[in-house]
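Suppose a colleague, Dr. K., hands you the sequence of a protein chain of 363 amino acids and asks what its three-dimensional shape might be. Before reaching for any lab equipment, you can write down a predicted structure in C-alpha cell form. Begin with the sequence itself:
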Amino acid sequence: MKNTLFKQIGTLVLAGLALTAMPTQAEAQPKVIRIGVAAPTVGNPPLFTLGSFGIAYTKGWFEEEFKKDGVKLEWTYFKGAGPAVNEALTNHQLDFALQGDLPSVIGRSSGLKTRLIAAATVRTNIYLATPPDSSIKSIKDLKGKRVAIFLGTNMQLVVDRILAANGLSERDLRVVNLDTGSLDAAIATKSVDAAFSFIDLLSLRDKGLAKIVYTNRGSDPTFTRQNALLVTDEFASQYPAATTRVVKALARGAHWVSQEANQPETFLLWSKMGFAESLLREDLSAEPLKAVQSPLLDAFFVSRYKDVAAASYQLKLARNKVEVDSWVDRRYLTEALKQLQLDGFWSPVDAAGKPVTTVASGK
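The predicted structure, expressed as C-alpha cells, is then:
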C-alpha cells in the first residue's frame, strides 16, 4: 500500500512538472500604446530630442520595437507639464508617462495607480537668475523679493530644498507662479526680481538679459530634480512583455547617449530643441552623460523620490503619504537590460550620489 501511495505521488509530481514545462500561451499584444511626455515639442510634425528618451523617440526605436507586431504608438506632449499628465492619467488616456518627480508623487498620492519603471534623466541642474543690474548676489538676498517659480512641477521642491539650506522658505519670498516661457519673459522685462529655472536661463544670460547668481551644478546632487518613466498598473498587469519592450527602447537610447562616440550627434540632436550646443555642454559639464542618463532605479533615485514624497505631504502639496519602495518596480528594467546585454553597464549610486561597490541589474 505504501509503494502504491508513493507511485501515485510520483505520478502527480511528474504530471505537474510536465504541465509547468509546457509553453504558456503567448501574451496578447496591445493594439495601441499611449505615451505622454511632460514637455513641449518643436515644429510640426513634433520634434522632441531631449534626454535619452528623446533620442530613442527621434531614432524611432519605440516604433521599431513594435513594428513587426503592428502595434501603434500614440504620442501626446503636454505643455501643461506634470499636472496635465496627471489629468490624462486620471482620465485613462495614457498607458505610459515621462514625468518629473513632484507631479508623479502628487498623482500617486491622489490615487493614480502607476509604477515607476525606469529613470529618465536624473540630477538635472537648476539656476537662479536676476536682471543684469540686480543687487541680488546670493540665495539669502531673496528674502522679500518677487521670485518666479513654476509651481506644481519638479522644480518646486528642489527650490524649497535650496531655500531651506539658506535659512529661507517660500513664505519668505513673494512667489510668482509662472511657466518657463512666462518666467523667462518676466526676467527679461524685469517684472520679477529673480527666477528659478533650468538651462533656459543660460540663454537669457548670453543675450545679456539676465545674470546667474546661483547654480547647483557640480555641487550637492540632492539639489536636483529627477524624471522617470511611469506605466499604469492596468497596462503593466495586462501586458508585462510590452511594458518591458517600452523600457528596452528607453534603455537603448540611454546606452547610445552614454557612449562618447555618439555624443557629438547627441548634442546636435538636443540642440534642435532650441538650446545652443555650447549651453547644453556647459549645463552638463559637471558629470559624464552616462551618469545623468542612467536608467537605474538605484538608491539615489529612490531616496530622491522619498524626499519628494515626504516634503510634498508636509507642505500639503500631496493629499496622502506615498510609499516609494512599493511604487518602484524594477522587473521590466532588469529584463530589458538583460535582453540588451547591458547588465552592469551603469554603476548605481547611493543616496548621497556616491558610487557603490556592488552592481545589480536595474538597481
